[in-house]
Amino acid sequence: MTVAATNTPKSQSELGIILKGVCKDPLGLMGLIIVGTIVISALLATWIVPYDPIAMNIKDRMQGPSFAHLLGTDQLGRDTFSRVIMGGRVALKVALPAIFGAMAIGLTLGMIAGYGPKWLDNLLMLFFDTIRSFPTVMFALAVVALVGPSLQTVVIVVMATSIPTYGRVARTQTLTLRNSEFILAERSMGAKMSRILGVHMLPNIIGVLAVLAAMDIPGVIALEAGLSFLGLGVKPPTPSWGALLKDGYALIRQTPWLVIAGGLPIILATLGFTFLGESLRDVVDPKLRKNR
Amino acid sequence: MSDALLEIDNLCVDYETARGDLKALRDITFNINKGEIVGIVGESGCGKSTLISAILRLIAPNTRFRNGEIRFKGEDLLTASEEKIRSLRGSDISIVFQDPMQTHNPVISIGNQMVDIQHRSKAPKAEKRAYAAKMLAAVGIPDPDARLNQYPHEFSGGMRQRIAIAMALMSEPDLLIADEPTTALDATLEVQIIERLKNLQKDFGCSILFISHHLGVIAELCDRVVVMYAGAVVESGTVREVFHNPKHPYTKRLIECDPGHIKERARVLPTIPGEVPDLANLPSGCIFRDRCLQAMDRCTSVPPLTDITESQRAACWLNHMEAAE
Q1: What does the alpha-carbon distance between residue A119 and residue A117 come to, in Å, rounded to a whole number?
Q2: Hey, are the CB atoms on B151 and A287 less than 8 Å from each other?
Q3: ipTM over 0.95
Q4: Would A32 be classed as within a structural domain?
């Protein structure tokens, strides 16, 4: 062990170690490639797309895949490939803020519930349970019916319904950690509550939550697609994977590639994020890292 | 005699439980002088850990201080503000815990933990890291610069305990509390740690409150020893006095029962028959009376802790008989 230990490179960043670990795992590498492709194509969407994704061209409507239109065109003559790429941007625009927002709020509330006094814990748990008691889709339908469909509405609905999951996990982790000896040691060394929570508890909890988040992202993408499919997500001209599915569904006999073009990215994104999440789970824990 | 660093006077600590108040500590009185190593011996449940948590005021919510004072450099720790006590923890008073496998944060590298522990210092991070490496070297960790990047699970138990000692000494505390630091380690490591502590104590000049139930370790390391039984001090004195001329029957039996003390091969290891009294329902009189072979009528009243010599004190009526004769 000592030999192996002294051979460890002198300065290797935490992120570097995690990336290396993910790349070693074939499924993790696959997840990383898929997620990377989606993220990069979403970031560079404006330059990648061959056509304006909302420009209609009635003359070329409902065409099959060709070199001019890689994935064909829809019933209004819009280029499907451009719409898929732009749809990825919408999917991430919903998933990332919603998940990170939910994670940040859930983490904070969960840690407070776990470390704070009992009455506060009870109050926060009551809050979490109240939110959890709403079925996500029904809750989304109700909110959309009230304030109208938009990207922001979807983000807020997803964030609100995900907070309890993160909050509960963070709380449980905090509860198990708060009586551990190293936290007692930290307190006996004169650390403030903010230092204990921020410096010592957080790194122990964040790994679990990051994995949970990576595994939650596909769910959110699917939810956004589902809401768009029902016409409750993003508004019509904006391309989204769910909207593509909806358009294609009506024309499935005439133009099946529309459904495929809308469905495939959802499947790929779900697989990619799930693989990445599972691979991350094994890598983030420094104790498990050594055994691999 | 040098001046006192930590003075504990008539300390009484109770735990409020469903069965009534558990009298965990009763009339604890002893001092630790500057630069002195004081050992506390006693079997499990005699209040050693309660005493430490009382000194650091890291107490369970059902703890009640009934009486007495703990003075550190003349200041009462029991009435000090939370702010004040936190500023003492980890700077003037540090602690090394029993189980080295549990005392480090598993997901933060040792180097970062040792930097973090210097949060009171305004020095740049590189300087703090250099100091951390220096401290690791001081406790005998080879190649300290590289090892700073490693995580706790990459060190052996003995190394982790030495790291814990290094961390406790980083702030150059006046008082180091060592709560059975060698109990979780094997015998060879125990010797190493003891030697290390002894040398470090000379270098840093701090006082050490060393808690153990290993009499040999206490005899090896400490200047003075306090023997506790069921939440009370039964005897205290210099190591020489207490180990060579114990004045309390409990101390005598404890020394007889120490495996290191037994010279011949015994079929059955000697024990002290009977059990520690229930601290929630204390029997009247001397707490050791039920297990004492020399118990007499007078033991139905509580014997006071009286001076035998200038430094040795014991709480037993037998010593009063000797004095009377």
Answers
A1: 6
A2: yes
A3: no
A4: no
Q: B80: which residues sit within 8 A by CB, 6+ positions away?
A: B57, B88
Domain tally, chain A: 1
CA distance B3 to chain A (A): 25
Count of domains in chain B? 1
The SS3 assignment for B314 reads strand
Q: What is the pLDDT of residues B240-265, one digit of tens each?
A: 888 888 888 888 888 888 777 677 77
Adjacent-strand bridge partners of B226: B40, B236
- Work out the angle between the directed axes of helices A256-284 and A26-43 (0-180°, nearest 10): 120
Model confidence pTM above 0.80: no
Coil, helix or strand at residue B212: strand
Chain B residues with CB under 8 Å of A287 CB are: 106, 151, 153
CATH number for the domain spanning A135: value is: 1.10.3720.10
Could you list the residue range(s) of the whole structural domain that residue A106 is in?
A: 46-275
**Residue carrying structure tokens 């610069």:** B145
CA pair distance B27, B13, nearest whole angstrom = 9
Contact B153 A1 (CB under 8 A): no
H or E stretch covering B232: strand B232-238
Instruction: Report whether A274 contacts A215 (CB < 8 A).
Output: yes
